[in-house]
Structure formats: C-alpha cells, structure tokens
Amino acid sequence: MKPARTVTHIEVPYSWSDVTNGEWVAQLLQARIDEWCPKLFGYHMLKLGGLSAELTSGHCNIQHQISVDKFSTYRNVEAESFELPFIEKSFDACLLIHQLDYSSDPHRLLREIDRVMVDDGYLLLSGNNPLSINGICGLLPWNRNKAPWNGRMYLSSRVMDWLGLLNYEVIYHETFAVLPATRHLACSTWLENILSEPLSAIGSMYFIVARKRTFPLKPIKPKWKVRRQLAPLQVNCRTEARSEAAKQK
C-alpha cells in the first residue's frame, strides 16, 4: 500500500467543469447531499474546496455556511486547506467533496478539519474508488493527466480507518455509480438500478457521513463505597465465654 503523503504536485480541479463527466458526478452527489442536509443542525457549516462550494446546500438547517478555497468563484474565504483561519471547534458540519483525492497529505487535511469541528459534529465526504470501472480507466495513457485520474484514489475502507483514528463514527457509507457516465443516459440508468446491489463494491464513488465522538480520558469514580467488614457476633461471644471460664479456674 502506497503512503498517503506525497511530494508530487497534483493539479486540483476547482470546478466540476474541469472534471471528466463532472456534471454527472455532481448530480449524483447533490442527490445524496439533499438527503442528508435536513438532518444536520447547528450554527456554522464549512464547505472546503471548490467542488464542495459548487454543490448547493439550501435544504440544510445550518444557515451560516462558509466556502473556503483559493481560486473558486464560489468561495467566501480564500485560504489554504491545511491552515484554516478559524479557531478550534468552530463548525457544526463540514462538506468535503472529492478533496482527499487531490490532497498531498490527506492525514493532515483531516486533522485540520478535526481541529475546527465541534464535538458530535458531522463530516460529509466523498471520493473516487480505485477498484471500479472508472478507476481502471486511469491506467489509459491519455487519461493520466485528466481529472479525476490525475489525483490519488483511496479505498473507502482506508478512509474510514483514518476517521476511526480521529474518533469519528461512520454512521453512513455508500458506494455507487457502478457504470460510468455514457451518452446513452437512459440505458445506463436502467443498468445501474440492476447492478447497484450485487456490484456495489465496485462503484465509481463512495459517500461517507461520519460524526465526531469525544470520549472522557479521566475515569469516573463510583459514588458508592465499600462497607467495612465487621467480625461476626458469634466469634465475640465465644471469646468472652472463654475468658470468663479461665477466670473461674
């Protein structure tokens, strides 16, 4: 298994128009975000990256939403993803769409998100599956320099292991889009409905919803105390009886 951190420069797409079949991918992810946004509550929401910023989250109960990126026209704050200009525990939810694949250090990115996330906050993230038809297309020479194949795809199980190390509980996981987008959308939709269940493991993308959990480090002492053990009453009686018999002798 290759290390997640790399020194190779990765060209990050800042719009879905820069991704092959980006419109199709955005529609699939938008449907899942629309399903989960009404379940989120809080005061502040972070949308990290240009791809996250382009997806709408109007159905979310969190009204104050901040989009962070360097070049996206949808950004509210221009900043590096590794050095977010926010204090600790600032956001109740974070939207991280297809950002780990283009990060030079995904571990550092997740740690920075964890820093600004409140306890029990929600993290919604997605990525490309390397063990899929779409992932295998990256082996073709003419696709290596195009998005999404110019990024580094990770298995969803590996991403969930990273989240587990940061004390995140995965409450939802889905792998979808078995067939990549084609010109015959009606035919592909029909086949997708048939193959979605038996071949879900080789879906082109994954979608994960995780929740930050905080466990106390100091053990809680019990309120009850152990009672002192007293000597049985019959032993005391025998001792007194023996002492009186010795005096009479």
Strand and helix map with partners:
Layout: H1 22-36, E1 44-48, H2 50-54, E2 64-69, E3 77-78, E4 91-97, H3 106-116, E5 117-128, H4 133-136, H5 156-165, E6 168-176, H6 185-195, E7 205-212, H7 233-248
Parallel strand pairs: 1-2, 1-4, 2-3, 4-5
Antiparallel strand pairs: 5-7, 6-7
Gist of the model:
The protein is an alpha/beta fold.
Write structural notes for this entry.
- This protein has 249 residues and is α/β, with parallel strands linked by helices.
- 29% of the residues lie in helices and 20% in strands.
- The protein contains 7 helices and 7 strands, in the order αβαβββαβααβαβα.
- The chain has helices at 22-36, 50-54, 106-116, 133-136, 156-165, 185-195, 233-248; strands at 44-48, 64-69, 77-78, 91-97, 117-128, 168-176, 205-212.
- Strands 3-2-1-4-5-7-6 form a 7-stranded mixed beta sheet, sandwiched between helices.
- The chain is globular and about 70 Å long.
- The N and C termini lie far apart (90 Å).
- The model has no long low-confidence stretch (mean pLDDT 87).
Largest sheet: 7 strands, mixed
Note the total helix count: 7
Head-to-tail CA distance between termini = 90 Å
Radius of gyration: 29 Å
Say how many strands there are: 7
Poorly predicted parts? none
Give helix % range.
25-40%
β-strand amount: 15-25%
Spatial arrangement of strands, main beta sheet: 3-2-1-4-5-7-6
Structural class: alpha/beta
Overall 3D form: globular
Task: Note the run of SSEs as H and E.
Answer: HEHEEEHEHHEHEH
Q: Mean of residue pLDDT?
A: 87
